[in-house]
Amino acid sequence: MTDGKRRRRGLAAASALLGGVLVLSACSGGDDDAAGSDGKDTSQAQVDEAAAKKSSEAQIKITPKDGSNNASINNSATVTVDKGELTEVTMTTADGTAVEGQISADKKSWKPSGQLERATTYKLSASAKDSEGLVAHENASFTTVSPSNSFIGNFTPDDGTTVGVGMPVSINFDKAITNKSAVQKGIEVSSSSGQEVACHWFNANRMDCRPEQYWQEGSTVTLKLALDGVEGAEGVYGVQQKTVTFKIGRNQVSYVDAKTKQMKVTQNGKTVKTIPISAGAPENKTYEGQMVISEKFKETRMNGATVGFTDDDGKGEYDIKDVPHAMRLSTSGTFIHGNYWGAKSIFGSVNTSHGCVGLADAKGANDPSTPGAWFYNNSIVGDVVVVQNTGDKTIAPDNGLNGWNMSWEQWKAGSAV
């Protein structure tokens, strides 16, 4: 054997021996070139790196977070994406009912088309792709606030209506409010006239707002409710988020004088009509004070039993099923209305009612020539009726929409902010 052959055999043997060492080293976890510095198989690291490179860069965010309770019915269910574009979003109730929604023009966000329902569980599923077309997915489920854990404010007047100069904004909450300051801060009432508006809490469930003097004729009043998520009482949150506007009509104020038994109807301070009336009898005097028409009925039933006027048998002292042209002045039952059952001679000469203000009228409420019909047809909700010289006490400010019977100082003292 030549030296060259011996040399080649030696190298082969060395290679075999070295190969055996490498195998033993790999199995024993030794440090060598075939493993990374962290001991991880290089081939597996390459696979992991390749997989990572194939994942979408799109980052989807769903609000509220998965599993949330007491979620807003206004601002929940929003989907946004970063480093990508939304391709599909589906929203359903727990029973599978689809909820309509729309992806924004830039494909960066999605929201439902309408307000959500209270005490409802919703499921959201979203997909998005990044600039390379790689798709990402996200899912969430949440439950909206329940009626027992939320409050709403029932307000008057309604959006888009035209009302008289005495119409306050009156809000009645369906839950007692203990955190009045927070709730009041979430409510804004303003007028195009620039009049200062203050709010007054009558109790834990009612807050009215008005200016110092009657609203200016022709102005526009705006009510903004930003109560969504506001904690009105412990564990009880607001859900309303809306804006309401209404118009103030002509300035009409009517003055009932129980002594002269006449009513003067004024517009902008000028008398436009004088109508004979019959107010409350001496034993049933009509409240005095500034009263606001809160409801109008072409015909309505009036039963004395509902307001405490009963006979010995417990029946109402009167029960008239078709009182014409009735307009409510108080919650307790004071109306100004037409009267067809009384002699025409009483109007302008004697007070005979149980506390209401009566005007001559016709049965059926279809004769437009009667004083009752004229006043009804020329009055709107929010007009003021000032009752004077009855000898009775001034009506309570919270008995109807009659906060005008408080001084401005007293009114502002009832504010929580």
Descriptive report:
With 417 residues, the chain is mainly beta. It has three domains: 59-145, Immunoglobulin-like, CATH 2.60.40.3780; 149-249, Immunoglobulin-like (Sandwich); 252-405, L,D-transpeptidase catalytic domain-like. Helices cover 14% and strands 36% of the residues. The chain is built from five helices and 27 strands. It has helices spanning 3-28, 42-53, 180-185, 371-377, 408-413, and strands at residues 59-63, 78-82, 85-93, 101-103, 109-112, 121-129, 135-143, 150-151, 153-156, 162-163, 169-173, 187-191, 197-203, 206-211, 220-226, 231-233, 236-238, 241-248, 252-257, 262-267, 270-276, 289-292, 295-303, 319-328, 335-339, 357-360, 384-388. The chain has a five-stranded mixed beta sheet with strand order 21-20-19-27-22, with no helix packed on it. A hairpin with a 2-residue loop joins strand 20 (262-267) and strand 21 (270-276). The protein is elongated and about 110 Å long. The chain starts with a helix and ends with a helix. The model is unreliable at 1-40 (pLDDT under 50).
